[in-house]
Amino acid sequence: MVSTEKLAAAESAWLSFSVNGRAVDVSVPGTRRLSRVLRDDLGLTGTKVGCDAGDCGACTVLLNGEAVCACLVAAGQAAGCEITTVEGLASRSPLQGRLQQSFLAHGAAQCGACTPGMLVAATALLEKNSSPNEAEVSDAIGGVLCRCTGYRKIVHAIMGAGEKVADKVSPAAGVAVGARLVRLDGTKKVAGTEIFGADETPAGTLGVRVIRSPHHRASFQFGDLDQFVAAHPGIVLVLTARDVPGTDCYGVIPRFADQPVFAHGEARFRGEAVAAVVGETDALEALNPAKFPVRWEELPALKTIEDALAADAPRIHAHREQNVLVRGRVVCGEVEKALAEADFVAEGEYETGFVEHAYIEPEAGFARRVGDAIEIQACTQSPYMDRADIAKILGIAPENVRIIPSAVGGGFGSKLDLSVQPFVALAAWKLGRPVRMVYSRTESIMSTTKRHPARMRLRAAATREGKLTALDFSADFNTGAYSSWGPTVAGRVPVHASGPYVVPNYRALTRAVHTNIVPSGAFRGFGVPQAAIAQEQLYDELAERVGIDPLEFRILNALENQNATVTGQVLGEGVGIRSCFEALRPRWKSARAEAAAFNTESSGPLRRGVGVAGMWYGCGNTSLPNPSTIRIGLKHDGRIALHQGAVDIGQGSNTIVTQICADAMLVPVAQFDLVSGDTAISPDCGKTSASRQTFVTGKAAHMAASKLRTAILKMAGACECATIEFGEGAVIVTENEKRTVLSLSHLPIDEHGYVITCEATFDPPTSPLDENGQGSPYAVFGFGAHLAELEVDMELGTVRVIQITAAHDVGRAINPTLIEGQIEGGVAQGLGMALMEEFFPGKGENLHDYLIPTVGDVPEVESILIEYPSPIGPFGAKGIGEQSVIPTAPAILNAIYDAAGVRIRRVPATPDRVRAAILAGQKLSQDQNQNQRRRTGVSVLHEATGGARG
Amino acid sequence: MERHFGGPIPLYLKPKTIDEAVSLLASPGGQILAGGTDFYPALGERLPEGRVVDITGVSELRGISSDSEHIRIGGLTTWSEVIRTPLPRCFDALKAAAREVGSVQIQNRGTVAGNLCNASPAADGVPPLLALDADVELASAAGRRCMPLSDFLAGNRKTLRRADEILAAVLVPRRMENAASAFLKLGARRYLVISISMVAAVVQVDGGRVAEARVAVGSCSAKAQRLQDLEKQLAGLPAIAGIGGAVKADHLQELSPINDVRATADYRRDASLTLVKRALEQCVRSN
Question: Which of A604, A592, A551 is nearest to A789 (CA)?
Answer without folding.
Answer: A592
